Amino acid sequence: MLDIKLIRENPDKVKAGLQAKGVDCDREIDRILELDALRRDAIYATENLKAEQNRVSKKIPELKKAGGDTSAIFAEMNKLKEEIKENEARLREIEEEYRSLMLSLPNLPDEGLKPGGKENNEPIRYFGEVRKFDFEPKNHVDLCTELGLIDYTRGAKLSGSGFWVYRGLGARLEWALLNYFIDTHLADGYELVLLPHILGYEAGLTAGQFPKFEEDVFWLQTDESSQRRFLLPTAETALVSLHRDEILSEAELPRKYISYTPCFRREAGSYRAEERGMVRGHQFNKVEMVQYTKPEDSDAAFEELVGKAEALVKGLGFHFRTVKLAAGDCSASMARTYDIEIYIPSMNGYKEVSSVSNARDYQARRGNIRFKRAETGKTEFVHTLNGSGLATSRILPAIVEQNQKADGSIVVPEVLRKYMDGIEIIGI
RNA sequence: GGAGAGAUGGCUGAGUGGUCGAAAGCGGCGGUCUUGAAAACCGUUGUCCCAAAAGGACCGGGGGUUCGAAUCCCUCUCUCUCCGCCA
Fold first, then answer.
1. Would you say residue A112 lies in a domain?
2. A275 backbone dihedrals φ, ψ, rounded to 5°
3. Strand B: which positions are within 7 A of a protein CB?
4. Whole-prediction pTM value?
5. Does a structural domain hold residue A98?
């Protein structure tokens, strides 16, 4: 959620910022400004009536004690009551519309980001070089199938397209990756959190998935409770709600969390032939990093998260690039995003393996996540940041393709071997 | 799944219709005393809306009754106890 004060004082700046993100919210913002004025008038009127009610009401016990006539006062109170009721009904209507519009506005992009979409993304650094093959490399689907690492057919049998089964050394390799990520984060002092994979509506609202992107997640239909629940699309959705409606102490910040979860996504209508295999599925494994920081610390935290994600990819020995996303390619909740993209030979291009973002106070406002600054004693919104560290569903194909040898076997990256009984080569 | 109990400030816990934003204790902060600390004593100590004053809101959430609700009613959520079932 954006700061209403900012919208009130700089509506044009907000409009321009959202334009840069590729969304036209001019009408919404104008309406919000109207509603804001109406809202404040209605609050003022209602509160004055309530103050009057409180004043008159105080006299009643005194008057009764003195044995006076209360009928005039009761009549007055009845009138006040009616007026308050009317005012409150109006206020509720205004606030409902106001709130839903406020929730629908995406975050503002950071100053200095290129406007526009994907085409304006800007690689800011490269690591390593594209591997040259002196034989015709196979794609990861064929390699994984031949080596028995992934069972796509039976995945589809169990759950339909977009699902697969990790088997044998494939499962070991996947698990080794997750262990490698987690151990690295633990060494960096992050707290490991294991989360529920089913979340309540509020979590999606805080993270910014809802109300706009409700169709992107899997909803549970078996719920008789009034609370709608869904399968988490990323651990971020849960981790950002961990401290929802809390006031943290300044000394508790920054909070640094990591979590491993499967991620469930509808990915409706997004299939492309080039994305076969496990590049885009309905369920994939990811270790997610989330930080809660003071506002002045979030830029440094962002760099830290980018650095951590890069270090993990480097550790695996991969060529990759880090890309600064243009304003319009950042997701709705985010002010700034860098993607780390790894080269996948069969796709002849780079694929995202990590996305690191700074939401600034956008999610904190939605989830009412604050901290008390020791110096002033005032509460302020925290900043939230997240980054994948990392998602395995692109890493494993990259390992398999980039580390393949002419005989169809693949080399296990050094850092993973200790999690796999020292296995160096996976062959037939 | 069945039966019951409960949700009050950072914590424990009083409060069953008016002067209650809420007793008391603990904790926190400040002070007195002390070389320093502890103890003792004194004072202070919730959040939010509002630029601020004034004012208003908040006793799990929502709704209702009432001139007036922490207190009565309805409903939802959550927690606990016992029984059943179960990884």
1. no
2. -100, 30
3. 18-19, 47-51, 54-57, 63, 67-68, 76-78
4. 0.91
5. yes
